[in-house]
Amino acid sequence: MTSARTVLVTGGAGGIGRAIAAAFTALGDTVVLADVHGVEEAAATLGVRGVTVDITDEDSIARALDEVGPVDVLVNNAGILSVHGKLLDLPAADMLRILQTNVHGTFLVTQQVARRMVDAGVRGVVVNLSSIGGRQPTPGMGGYESSKAAVDALTRWAAIELAEHGIRVNAVAPGPVLTPMLAAGLPEGSPARLAWEGRIPLRRLAAVEQVAAAVVFLAGDTAAHITGTSLPVDGGQLLT
């Protein structure tokens, strides 16, 4: 890299967010973590800046961006993964909360950051966190997966409209990722863990560092001619 970039990572207090932040920090970039809870502890642990933000609130986003200053790379990692239910059972309020965070929140942050990039003439990069679930359904997870299908569509929408400003927009679409929380709930060798691994041709879950590596790649100069794509990091699960 020719110079340090300012990288804003939403959902930065979680396992994937921390791994993404660590990967950019290792490159010498200036990283800012953003989250609604726990960002101070996460930022202190990583030795980076932190800012509290509610991505579903336009005013909260604007205040955070005023504090952060110019952003070169936006990583839209914030989202709700833990709310699930079958189609006939999922409460309507839960579905709305999923969409408000995963889709509308991603839209709001992208819109505000992109506006500032355009106004400042910054040829920036946006990387969204999607999921292969947007293309391969799992019973009981359809609310989350529908939101990630929308994130893929939002990625293409933003990419085609922001291209004239030199701003690239892509997504990384993981399969199951071995975050600390998932590892605690699915111990190695457990029937549930083996069931997930059995769906994956490479027979293992993704490490958070492998997801972070894909984000760093799409944000970097070697991906300068890539925009509007959603890159699976799934061990081949979409092949099945």
TrEMBL record:
One of the record's GO molecular function terms: oxidoreductase activity
For this UniProt record, the keywords arranged alphabetically read as follows:
NAD, Oxidoreductase
Q: Does the keyword Glycoprotein apply?
A: no
CDD domains assigned:
SDR_c
Domain (Ketoreductase): give its ranges.
5-175
InterPro entries in UniProt: KR_dom, NAD(P)-bd_dom_sf, SDR_fam
Q: Per the similarity annotation, which family is this?
A: Belongs to the short-chain dehydrogenases/reductases (SDR) family.
Q: This chain belongs to which protein, by name?
A: 2-hydroxycyclohexanecarboxyl-CoA dehydrogenase
Q: Upper lineage ranks?
A: Bacteria, Bacillati, Actinomycetota, Actinomycetes, Pseudonocardiales
